Predict the 3D structure of the following.
Amino acid sequence: MAKLSGDPGDPRVARTRRDVIRASAASLLEEGWGATTHAEVARRAGYSKATIYAHWPTPVDLMRDAIAQICEDTTHPPTSGNLREDLHVALSALALTLSEGRYDRLMAGVIERAGHDEGARDLRDRLYETATTGVRGILAAHLRPDDVGPCLAMLVGAVLVRATYEGEAVPPAFITDIIDRALDRIELETER
């Protein structure tokens, strides 16, 4: 994360940092990577562009701290211990986040840059890890370690494709169906 010069205990430094990072995160979620410029963040945060550039010299520096904030603010629903119910709740929460359109704009900017920018690849990985932590934890508590990754990809992938690429609602029946299909497949593999 970028460091602001000056005394880290100085409340003005902490306030500036907080304001700039919050403004960056809000812009990134509302408008996407391309619109989250130093000028836009300065406007939203109420600071000069010079202040923003001095402490976050590149767009990736600004995005890194914004995405760290977004990841820190992410919460996952509590679990009950029932595999299917917990998956349903977690996947429904993911579907709701995707239906709001904010996360797909965020991911689109990161994915676009990840092919040629190592910093963007790190951000992509952090976002994926954060978005899937709840589902991954549920699966890890109930499945063999070798089954967690493939099942995670099937479940999260199905919700992601339905909500983002197809632009369709992700109703409870759809989530129940993909959970049943993924878990039935694992049960078949376990029986062999």
Q: What stands out?
A: The chain has two domains: 11-70, 77-191. The chain has a mean pLDDT of 88. The radius of gyration is 19 Å. The domain at 11-70 is CATH 1.10.10.60 (Arc Repressor Mutant, subunit A).
